[in-house]
Design goal:
Number of domains of chain B: 2
Number of domains of chain A: 1
Shape of chain A: elongated
Number of helices of chain B: 8
CATH class of the largest domain in chain B: Mainly Alpha
Shape of chain B: elongated
CATH architecture of the largest domain in chain B: Orthogonal Bundle
Oligomer: heterodimer
Number of strands of chain A: 0
Strand content of chain B: 5-15%
């Protein structure tokens, strides 16, 4: 493993979350499009299938990935268009992680009981 | 002090795959890793192969992956690494033997950006004047020694060896922002190719690795902006 610093890990997480979200989006669109077969179609069956807990944990990860990818995207825009952005890219990345945590933890609070409590 | 040196070795004529060779020896804390390698080669195992020339951080021959980071073996001291030292060849280029890699793809990328002065105007009687302020704009990028520490620290280059890489962009920057030069359009055209400038994903490994302290990601972003504003 190359011992890179903040920039390398920001890049790795951005790529991983990006690929994961692209795959999720594909699945999501296919899934929602099943609605066109009506209430007797496969849509409801799939929905029930996705209510199992592994997919709820997955949903949690999707939310965290969206928050991280969005805010790191802003970090990249700042770096691309300003010199100071490049200088403070390390602290900016910690900021991105902090914002991800600040938004992610309440989401966790809301979704965790649903995962283990059913609903 | 006693140091424990692990070197990733490979002889294509004898070995199927690279292996780790271990050497224990005495070294002074102020020794450079290059001194340690010399000690191993001269006193312990003459078959160890690596490049070095000036041994003073200016020829760019001995870039290696040392304890997980690209550096020049002649600039990093034993005391900065501790007793356990791991040396590997730089990544993304084909290993020819031990720590020696094929640098040709690296130099091909360098040549592709036309790293020389282009100005077809007849030379003036005195000099092609350049103000100190104009010279300052590309001062950082005049310092490159083509050691390849940056390009071979780049995650994009590891997976796509056709990416021109940070070193080529740094040397393009050297001339693109030279007020006396007229070849910027040609160079930007080269950098605008699919495996050019836009492959940079700002992982900053190049900036961290540069033994000449060139702010590489910063200058790559400057070239990106130049290309963007010219196209807009």
């Amino acid at each position: 493993m190359y011992r890179g610093r903040e920039g390398q890990w920001a890049f790795v997480l951005h790529r991983l979350s990006g690929v994961a979200l692209a795959l999720y989006l594909l699945l999501h669109v296919l899934d929602i499009s099943l609605v066109m077969y009506g209430p007797e179609g496969p849509f409801n069956a799939f929905l029930a299938f996705y209510h199992q807990w592994p997919f709820r944990v997955g949903l949690l990860m999707v939310i965290v990935a969206v928050i991280y990818h969005a805010f790191n995207g802003l970090r990249i825009i700042i770096m691309d268009f300003t010199d100071w952005g490049v200088k403070v890219q390390g602290p900016l990345w910690y900021g991105v992680l902090a914002v991800t945590a600040v938004i992610g933890i309440p989401v966790l609070w809301k979704i965790l009981p649903e995962i283990f409590g059913g609903a | 002090m006693q140091v424990n040196v692990k070197i990733k070795r490979f002889n294509p004529e004898a070995d199927k795959r690279p292996y780790w060779a271990e050497y224990q020896l005495e070294a002074r804390p102020t020794d450079r890793v290059l001194d340690v390698l010399n000690e191993i080669k001269w006193e312990m195992d003459g078959s160890l192969s690596y490049r070095r020339s000036c041994a003073h951080g200016i020829c760019g021959s001995d870039a290696m992956l040392i304890n997980g980071v690209n550096r020049l073996a002649c600039k990093i001291l034993v005391k900065d690494l501790g007793a356990d030292i791991r040396v590997e060849p730089i990544r993304g280029l084909t290993v020819q033997k031990d720590l020696i890699v094929d640098m040709e793809p690296f130099f091909d990328a360098y040549k592709a950006v036309l790293p020389f002065f282009i100005n077809d105007d007849p030379a003036p009687a005195a000099e092609r004047y350049q103000s100190p302020e104009d010279r300052e704009i590309f001062d950082d990028t005049t310092k490159c020694i083509l050691c390849a520490a940056c390009t071979t620290s780049c995650p994009v280059f590891w997976t796509n060896g056709r990416y021109l890489g940070p070193a080529a962009i740094v040397n393009a920057h050297r001339f693109i922002f030279d007020s006396r030069d007229q070849g910027a359009d040609e160079r930007l055209q080269v950098l605008n190719q699919p495996n050019g400038l836009w492959r940079c994903r700002t992982a900053y490994n190049c900036t961290e690795a540069c033994p000449r302290d060139i702010p590489i990601t910063k200058v790559i972003e400057e070239v990106k902006r130049e290309l963007l504003w010219r196209r807009a």
